Amino acid sequence: MALRVLFITSAESAPAAQRAAAGLHAAAVETADGMLAGLEHLKVSVYDVVVAWFPLPNWEAAEVLEEIQRVNALAPVIIADQGATVMDAVRLARLGAFQVVNAAAPAEALREALESAAVHHRNLRAARLGNERVAEPWRRFLIGESRPMQDVLEVVRLIGARRSTVLITGETGTGKEMVARAIHMASPRANRPMVAVNCSALPENLLEAELFGHVRGAFTGAVANRIGRFEQADRGTLFLDEIGEMPLELQAKLLRVLQEREFQRLGSSETIRVDVRVIAATNCDLVRRVREGKFREDLYYRLNVVPLPLPPLRERRGDVPLLVNHFIEKVCEAEALPPRRISPEALERLERYDWPGNVRQLENAVEMAIALSGDRTMLYPSDFRLPAARRPAPPPGEVPVIALPDQGLDFEETVGRIERALLEQAMRKTGGNKKRAAEMLGLKRTTFAAKLKSLEANDAWQDRAAAVCAGA
């Protein structure tokens, strides 16, 4: 796997950092313009090494270390500073810096420092992951080290031992059932079954019998008594997938079971009590379905005790290399194949892709690539047949609706405000990566850069004008 390096620079330090980065031919290098952009990168991606290249205006090295460690405690940090002394290096090492290098030193010195830091990071990560999987077996269900995934892991860790109902939301393919299994495995119910039901796969009459069971003769075709999913999950966990598709009449019965922990089989008057933890999942907007009268509001609040939204894969691209290697190992083991590796060019292509089908689509792509690679042990970009990614439609409320007032408006100013909002939102979503931000907006990188420059120039003009007015 290519060495992943994040350079945090400023306008003043960028030229020297870029020259140094150009010499790192075996590394995948990303650059963040300023500390705030660097921290946004660290929230969504995983790096082997972070290089803070000074000067960084308004930031001391000790502050930089503290902020990076707050966002990502594992990433080794190299401080590149031409003015750093031996005493500075000792002090910063005590604060957690992996190494302090002279920014004017030959590229070879930086390369050696990066390789040493990367080996340290990967060993530390492997040891930590091994320890976690021994102490927390549920971790094997969840692959990822990005900040969004760390947030998911923390929620699972906190709620695993509880009985609270959980509502997992997210796009199709984000791994909602895997998260449900992780929650189950993290609970005292781990030695009992987790029973899964897809609420959209069965018609209403069959779904009710599936959940609650039936007695012989309850309906045509009921030739024997049948235990329902709630009884099967007694003292365990019931996972209700696609809960948003459950018919309204059945929602009322589910609400009663959640409240009273008891129910009756179809065709029976006997009350059965169960101890079941319910985890529900959906890829639809339940709040909107409540407004449309398609989902009971009281059931929504009963399910949404612990909300757990899952990030789409495009918002945690840094986890793609970890997922790819996991799926390669999984497929090779299942098919009894020799180990496969992925080329840096193929991995870079996968990281750039939007993955509208999320983790499930990535797993299928890896499986197909291995099948198409034949006897080769290396996977190349041509092995991955990826369809053009269709960006999901923005949810209601994100598309600006402009009402034209009776007195009229300033067209250029209004369009400018919308354009600014879109540019800023794209920069936030991509952690300051201008290339990805341009792709999100369907713009050429040069066009995107020109628009940003125009906005920055306008801001600078307004600041100067304000200063003149203040001094007048």
CATH class assignment of the largest domain: Alpha Beta
Determine the CATH superfamily of the largest domain.
Answer: P-loop containing nucleotide triphosphate hydrolases
**Could you estimate the helical fraction of the residues in percent?**
40-55%
Q: Report how far apart the termini are.
A: 60 Å
> In CATH terms, what is the architecture of the largest domain?
3-Layer(aba) Sandwich
Mean pLDDT: 83
Round the Cα radius of gyration to an integer and report it: 27 Å
Number of domains: 4
- The tally of strands reads 16
Count of runs of 4 or more consecutive helical residues: 18
CATH topology of the largest domain: Rossmann fold
Poorly predicted runs: 391-400, 464-472
How much of the sequence is in beta strands? 5-15%
Arrangement of strands in the largest sheet? 2-1-3-4-5
Main sheet summary: 5 strands, parallel
Indicate the structural class.
Answer: alpha/beta
Question: How would you describe this structure in keywords?
Answer:
472 residues; alpha/beta; Rossmann fold; Helicase, Ruva Protein, domain 3; five-stranded parallel beta sheet; 18 helices; 16 strands; 14% strand; globular; disordered C terminus
